Amino acid sequence: MSESSIAEFIVHLMEYVILTLEGIIAIFIIVVVFRTLYDLIRKYMIGLVKKDPEQQLHNYQIVRRMLRGLLYSLDFLIAADILKTLMVPSPNQLLSFIVVVVIRILLSWAMAKELEKSI
User: Fold this and answer.
1) Do 114 and 60 meet the contact criterion of CB atoms below 8 Å apart?
2) How many angstroms separate the CA atoms of 65 and 115, rounded?
3) Cα–Cα distances in angstroms (integers) from residue 54 to residues 34, 64, 100, in the given order
4) How far, CA to CA in Å, does 118 sit from each of 5, 29, 34, 62, 98?
5) Which of 62, 70, 63, 61 is nearest to 107 (CA)?
6) 45/43 Cα distance (integer angstroms)
7) Cβ pair 101, 82 in contact under 8 A
8) SS3 string of the chain?
9) pLDDT tens-digit profile of 74-87?
10) CB-CB contact of 72 with 31 (8 Å)
């Protein structure tokens, strides 16, 4: 095998790894959001039948679990973006990836602060 074919193989492998990672993250986000909606609807329906004085606390726990899940997914999305920057050929694409990573890091930081505040 020549050096160029090995490099091509690695580039294609990285593309598949990034695509798989992003797909898993998307599925994880969907599961987290639907689980949160399910739990909140279930708590609301139970609250209609039986008044629970600790319902607000349960709602905070549900939302905190959702924030934690979204925070983990943002961390993995940042890792996927970093892998993408390793394969970027042009400075314009590199700049756009840097902007996206910075925005995701700021969003991750804000969600972590919200999570700390709700504890």
Assistant:
1) no
2) 9
3) 23, 15, 39
4) 52, 21, 21, 11, 30
5) 70
6) 6
7) yes
8) CCHHHHHHHHHHHHHHHHHHHHHHHHHHHHHHHHHHHHHHHHHHHHHHHCCCCCHHHHHHHHHHHHHHHHHHHHHHHHHHHHHHHHCCCCHHHHHHHHHHHHHHHHHHHHHHHHHHHHC
9) 888 888 877 877 77
10) no
Rounded Cα distance between 40 and 38, Å, is 6
Dump pLDDT digits (tens) for 91-105. Answer: 887 788 788 888 888
Answer yes or no: are the C-beta atoms of 22 and 77 closer than 8 Å: yes
User: What's the predicted TM-score (pTM) here?
Assistant: 0.73
